[in-house]
Design brief:
The protein has 523 residues and is mainly alpha-helical. It contains 23 helices and no strands. Helix 14 runs antiparallel to helix 15 and helix 17 packs antiparallel against helix 22.
């Protein structure tokens, strides 16, 4: 999934690139973006293999995803300040090179603790990469060709989620999971080398600007505590654990201090006054919650397929990959027409399609074949195409140009954080519902149940001992429990998507200029 972020401040005036320099510049910047976006989806289908190899549960393995997302969300608001302080080309190169190093460290990680730490580092250093790739790309083209430049950039961010699960599954099954991180090294080095050769003489002007250090520290404190609470809660029985209670208190108190500080500081790291605008808060809220729902379900589906349906990582990747196919087809149409059609209509259509897809998944059973499971994934591509640009258009509409970067940064911080929170909540609810269904199903396995007695007799006739019969029955009950739990999560998510639609219509009609703003703030 593409992670949009605030565009950096404008560069010093440089003429557009021409000929082969522009071509190679576009390829290099797109390759860096591709590598970054790929890493948000490539690990999803590899979680069971990573968890098994490092000796942890699959729910603990989801930290590999949430640590990247949380660190990335924290880094996003810093992009503007870092660009002004160090220059956009130097910052972009540093981001790419540090991303390569952190990817290498992820592959070498000897245990889950180190892998999570390196993934957090990877997510943090990746923060400036995507917004700066947008900024540099737009500076390479004449203004009349800005739409073409953003269309090409968007294709990269849509192809990467298609390739991520396929590539991650194939690498996991045929080589080993560390190579899902090692493949970033040659791509990153190539992108960095070409980018430096073309752009090092096109550096932006720099100046010393103050940074809200206390605000940033409070941001890290409350977001980190909240995510730790959500991830550790599953292992420690939630608020029965003093550790979880302590993390919850730190998160709440840290958030309260963060609000007070940011609303009174002269140079806040996050401009909370934007929430005074109806379009901003309604658009940002709808985007964040929808993305959290989407990402939580994207994580659960491959886990269910591999753990309880017998799918390999490659097969799970093939199920997940087609989500980008129709998105690639429809995204250019949305981009060209969003200035002429009320973006609230497009966003509503997107949520309706998401709800349809999740309702279809809520009807899966253990007999569902490959194509039955894949069809909703293909349809989901339509929802993705109508999701980002219309909602960003709503969120940024009516803002003056000098506030676009801050607004885009804040809305994307909320969205990326919601993705990590959604992953934790979805996996927790999935496990809890599975435990409930397991208890209910076990109650019916008794001598008085004809179906259970027949199944036990059939297994015994096959030469299994009494213990083996019970073990086989427990496996069947487990499979059914987690399938029913997945159905519950899918159905609840579908309902929540429908409930989000009114928030879109709380916004005022977006002016047509919002489409051009969206191009700068999202894919």
């Amino acid at each position: 999934m593409a992670i949009a972020a605030p565009p950096a401040p404008p560069a010093a005036a440089h003429p557009p690139l021409e000929g082969s320099a522009r071509l190679w510049g576009t390829i290099a910047l797109s390759a860096a973006t591709f590598m970054n976006v790929l890493d948000t989806s490539i690990a999803n289908v590899s979680l069971p293999a990573i968890s098994g190899d490092l000796g942890v549960s699959s729910t603990q393995g989801t930290w590999v995803i949430t640590s990247f997302a949380v660190a990335n969300a924290i880094a996003v608001p810093l992009t503007g300040w870092l660009t002004q302080r160090f220059g956009q080309v130097r910052l972009f190169m540093t981001s790419v090179l540090l991303f390569i190093i952190s990817s290498w460290l992820c592959g070498l990680a000897p245990n889950m603790t180190m892998l999570i730490a390196f993934r957090a580092l990877q997510g943090f250093v990746a923060g400036p990469m995507i917004p700066l790739s947008q900024t540099l790309l737009l500076s390479s083209y004449p203004k009349a060709m800005a739409g073409l430049a953003m269309a090409m950039w968007s294709m990269t961010t849509l192809v990467a989620p298609v390739m991520g699960p396929l590539l991650g599954g194939w690498i996991t099954d045929n080589i080993s999971w560390p190579w899902i991180f090692y493949i970033n090294i040659p791509v990153g080095l190539l992108a960095a080398g070409i980018t430096w050769g073309i752009y090092h003489k096109r550096e932006s002007t720099t100046r010393k600007v103050p940074i809200d250090g206390i605000g940033l520290a409070l941001l890290v404190l409350w977001v980190g505590s909240m995510q730790l609470m959500l991830d550790k809660g599953k292992e420690l029985d939630w608020f029965h654990s003093p550790e979880v209670v302590a993390m919850a208190v730190v998160a709440v108190v840290g958030f309260a201090f963060f609000l007070v500080w940011e609303l009174t500081d002269k140079h806040p790291v996050v401009d909370l006054s934007l929430f005074k605008r109806r379009n901003f808060w309604s658009g940002a809220l709808a985007t964040a919650v929808a993305y959290g729902l989407f990402f939580g379900n994207v994580v659960i589906l491959p886990l269910w397929l591999q753990q309880f349906m017998g799918y390999t990582a490659t097969q799970a990747g093939m199920i997940m990959a087609p989500v980008g196919l129709l998105a690639i087809v429809f995204s250019p149409i949305v981009g060209l027409t969003v200035g002429k059609v009320d973006p609230r209509r497009y966003a509503t259509f997107s949520f309706l399609v998401f709800a349809l897809v999740l309702w279809m998944r809520s009807n899966f059973n253990t007999q569902a074949d490959f194509w039955t499971i894949m069809i909703p994934t293909v349809i989901q591509g339509v929802a993705m195409a109508f999701f980002f640009v219309p909602l960003v258009t709503i969120t940024l509409s009516g803002l003056s140009p000098d506030r676009i970067a801050a607004a885009s940064g804040l809305s994307n911080f909320a969205r990326i954080t919601a993705g990590a929170v959604g992953t934790s909540i979805a996996t927790t609810v999935w496990e809890n519902r599975a435990a409930l269904h397991h208890a209910q199903l076990v109650e019916s396995v008794n001598p008085g149940n004809a179906a259970a007695s027949s199944a036990m007799a059939g297994l015994s006739a096959g030469g299994l001992s009494a213990e083996q019969v019970l073990g086989q029955l427990n496996h069947i009950v487990d499979q059914q429990s987690f399938m029913l739990a997945a159905n519950d999560v899918f159905y609840a998510s579908a309902v929540l998507f429908l409930l989000l639609i009114p928030f879109v219509w709380l916004a005022k009609p977006a002016r047509s200029g919002g489409a051009s703003d969206a191009a700068a703030g999202a894919h």
